[in-house]
Amino acid sequence: MNDAPGASASLSPDVAVLPVAEVAQRLSLPVSRVHQLVRDGHLLSLRREGDVVVPADFLSGNAVVKGLPGTITVLRDGGYDDPDILRWLFTDDESLPGAPIEALRAGRHREVKRRAQAMAF
Fold first, then answer.
1. What distance separates the 2 farthest-apart alpha carbons in the chain?
2. Among candidates 107, 103, 106, 105, which has minimal Cα distance to 116?
3. Are 68 and 76 contacting, i.e. CB atoms less than 8 angstroms apart?
4. Residues 58, 104: contact at Cβ < 8 Å?
5. Closest residue by Cα to residue 54 from 67, 40, 37
6. How far apart are CA 94 and CA 43, in angstroms?
7. Over the stretch 21-61, which tens digit does the pLDDT of each residue have?
8. According to the per-residue pLDDT averaged within each range, which of 9-13, 51-55, 116-120 is highest?
9. Choosing a second label site near 30 at 20 to 30 A (CA), which of 4, 61, 64, 121?
10. What are phi and psi of 17, to 5 degrees?
11. How far apart are CA 58 and CA 33, in angstroms?
């Protein structure tokens, strides 16, 4: 799980987050499986006010946003740590336009993954 000291500082406080228990409920999974999704890089978590949370934008209905796990993997393989990945996903990029997470949610996962590959290598 992402318990890095700087992880909470990498995400703006106005980004909506969900407690792990709520993520588990939305995905119809046990909490332990959500922790496994974080360890496996399908999701990222952070600590906010002492609680482990997941950005709400990482979910679409009852599923993880398409393309998010692959984007996380590309960036991790490229040497980025989880706080940097969180920061990048939620930072506006004029060339997209908008933040990468917004593009993922809009179904433009291939475009986001290409940018992640270029950035990581």
1. 38
2. 103
3. no
4. no
5. 37
6. 25
7. 999 999 999 999 999 999 999 999 999 989 999 999 999 99
8. 51-55
9. 4
10. -130, 160
11. 16
Tokens representing 32 are 């332990």
Q: What is the pLDDT of residues 76-92, one digit of tens each?
A: 999 999 999 999 999 99
- With tokens 């980025």, the residue in question is 80
Token pair for 90: 């939620």
Query: Residue 38 region, left (φ>0) first, then alpha (ψ -120 to 50), else beta?
Result: alpha
Collapsed DSSP state (helix, strand, coil) of residue 53: strand
Give the residue, 10 or 42, on which the prediction is more confident: 42
Report the mean per-residue pLDDT for the chain. Answer: 90
* Percentage helix, strand, coil for the chain under 3-state DSSP, each rounded to 5: 50, 10, 40
Look-up of token digits 């809009």: 106
Amino acid at 86: L
3-class SS of residue 64: strand
